Amino acid sequence: MTVELQVAQGWLTVCELSSLIPGRGVAALLPDGSQAAVFVDRAGRPYAIGNQDPFTGAQVLSRGLVGTAGGRPFVASPLLKQRFDLESGRCLDDEETAVRTYPVRTAVTS
Fold it and tell me: Which pLDDT value is given to residue 43?
């Protein structure tokens, strides 16, 4: 089973779902040159957000710590520790800031 992100060109295969470790992210280079941070939760549900920390400009969100707040999954930036909702991209610590989210799905490989 693969993890795919929806980008302008369509669905892009990122990796095998089994390659993702719950609580840890991976960075994926996208066709437009930007990066996505891809995560999977303990239930096997994948998430994808922009990898760039909007507070520092560094491509590091894939290295952040994953947790939950109020039942919502988030990743905390490894630099300044702001938390970003993995479903909406909204910063939980600064309501005026958000990161891009990507539609994500799993697909059966043949």
Answer: 86
Q: Any idea what DSSP says for residue 59? A: B
- Whose CA is closest to 53, among 80, 30, 27? 80
CA contacts within 13 A on the Cβ side of 50: 17
Burial of 7 (0-12, 13-18, 19+ CB in 10 A): middle
Put simply, whether the predicted model's pTM sits higher than 0.90 gets the answer yes
- Collect all residues with Cβ–Cβ distance below 8 Å to 3 and sequence separation of at least 6: 13, 14, 15, 16, 17, 20, 38, 40, 46, 48, 104, 105, 106
Question: What one-letter code names the amino acid at 64?
Answer: G
